[in-house]
Here is the input.
Amino acid sequence: MTDNFDAIVIGTGQAGPSLAGRLTDAGMTVAVVERHLIGGTCVNTGCKPTKTLVASAYAAHQARRGADYGVITGSVSIDMARVHARSQKISVDGRTSNEAWLRSMAGCSLIFGHARFESDRTVRVGDELLEADRIFINVGGRAVVPDMPGVGEVPFFTNSSLLETDVLPEHLVVVGGSYIGLEFAQIYARFGARVTVIEKGPRLIGREDAEVSDAVRSILEAEGIAIRTGAECINFAHHPNSVAVGLDCSEGEPKTVGSHLLLAVGRRPNTDDLGLEKTGIETDERGYIQVNDRLETSVPGIWALGDCNGRGAFTHTAYNDFEIVAENLLDGADRKVSDRVPCYALYVDPPLGRVGMTEAEARATARRILVGRRPMTQVGRAVEKDEPLGFMKIVVDADTDAILGAAILGTSGDEAIHTVLDIMAAGGNAATLRQTMHIHPTVSELVPTIAGALTVCEDREQERSRP
Here is the structure.
């Protein structure tokens, strides 16, 4: 027997529940299918639990620095059971809230189970066969387990499994020097673990400008985190009560031995077991569902939202996917993915806020560019908080005055970057930003100042390569 609905939503990540809410408000009947935990990555294994750990680690770090502020705190210790319980509670609260919301929607049927396509219009969940003219795929992604020698012979964590434990490693080895790996590295170092980060590439967070990578590396190394880059031949082997990781780095010891191993080398979409081969839905070689600017797949009436479409790997891009689809479908809008300004943050401390192009990306377009920079040591608010690490940078087209991108690595950088993002989204330029008065004392107040002190700069990547 087939159950007919106006729409089927597969997955309850950031886009799913909100989309179900809009559809049911419009009078549609909606089947929402979830095979594991309601809320997706953000609520369960991403933003909420990890940023909760970031907050606990920051509190520990500041407590140890109490004397710097004239506050005598005494010795600082970490209760990992309570740290873990706090992160789990916040996840559970978010999950419970999402489920209650879905169950309260008139016309919404919440179905638990693994959804697999039977055709372009039918989806099987266990013994149930669901049919709808509109299907929305919102299945998210998961951590990649790399095909490295020995990986199947040693115990390891991914970001998801590490969040499930309250263990404090004696020595945590993190393979992967990008966003997820670096956040966990600093978290556990501040909790008291010895931490080594191993990165195959020549520098950390390779998609960022080299000066950002260098600054982040310096910040982490100053906290005692060992960084090993250029690890071209990573391999794993058992070691008594630990894991040996071979590196083949250009410098340093050829291997490191840790008590625990975290693999943080990327993510992959959860599309390999959806039965897409029974549909006309096209995917790329990595399994990402191909969508157009309106997030429509190659099959009319089927959309893909969130991490599984390869058009963004963040909670905010997933939610924006929902907004684009809902407004186009229900409000007669013509919103496009290409209209949004790329933005994200790295939640080490201090955080990195990023918007638009990097300086290197801007130079690669052959534009004439201007760059404004300020170290955080010249930001009064950062000095007052005694958190002067990092810098601000804005990249501008010299011919049009358009803001091409910005980076703020420093205290509140994840918040202050929105001053640039909003100007870019509203179609303003560097002059708009330059002429806008900001509140003192804030981190954001220096952004207009930087926009008013732009200079022509030689390619810093070339500068780094000089003898």
